[in-house]
Amino acid sequence: MDAKCAHHPDAVADGGTCERCGTYICAACAVAGSAPAICRPCLRLLSSGRHIKHARVLSILMMVHGGLLLATGAYYVLFGGFMFDAMMDIPVGDDADELAEQLPGMLMGMFTFIGLSHVLPGVLQGLAGWMLLRHRGIRLAWAAAAMGLLSLFGCYCSPTALALAAYAVFVLTRDDVKARFAVVLPPAS
């Protein structure tokens, strides 16, 4: 005797069993290509969790904040280059000490460091936000939120980086969000 689908009693359970609820499912109820195999009612339940909408908001905020970090970092790097160029045009007297000669290079290095501490998290946050929209990349989101705190070196994005990291902790630690992200669906064709 063949097992019957829990949602369609007339259909044979040729879709296996749902890994979440344990019921037998037919091919029409199985979410094709999901890992683990789940039924459509479970996917609807997971996708309608109380905090799932916050994952979408977090993804958009990460992309926006990533763009701001990227722009700020590019500004720092360009400003450092312009400052280096301008300082190299200043004549140094005969009595100038070694520090005065090294100052343009030191400032260029400082601005490059600050710029890269914004550019790298900016790229990572943009990518993480894009992945979160597709219910993928929860580890990447954790890394992006933590790396965004590097902007504390530049001050401009510090308040938003702290708020984004706190919001990421709020969203990504919720059980319904973790359960939804545990189910990987194939890319839409």
Please outline what is shown here.
This protein has 189 residues and is mainly alpha-helical. It has helices at residues 40-47, 52-88, 98-133, 138-147, 158-172, 175-182.
Characterize the structure shown:
This protein is rod-shaped. The model has no long low-confidence stretch (mean pLDDT 85). The chain folds into two domains: 48 residues; 129 residues. The longest helix has 37 residues. With 189 residues, it is mainly α. It is built from six helices and no strands. It starts with 39 loop residues before the first helix and ends in a 7-residue tail after the last helix. Helix 2 runs antiparallel to helix 3 and helix 4 runs antiparallel to helix 5.
- Helix count equals 6
Strand content is under 5%
Percentage of residues in helical conformation: 55-70%
Write down the domain tally.
Answer: 2
Strand count, sense and barrel status of the largest sheet are: none
Task: Give the termini distance in whole angstroms.
Answer: 36 Å
Structural class: mainly alpha
Query: What string, H for helix and E for strand, traces the elements in order?
Result: HHHHHH
> Rounded to an integer, what's the Rg over CA atoms?
26 Å
The gross shape turns out to be rod-shaped
Mean pLDDT: 85
Spans where pLDDT lies below 50 across 5 or more residues: none
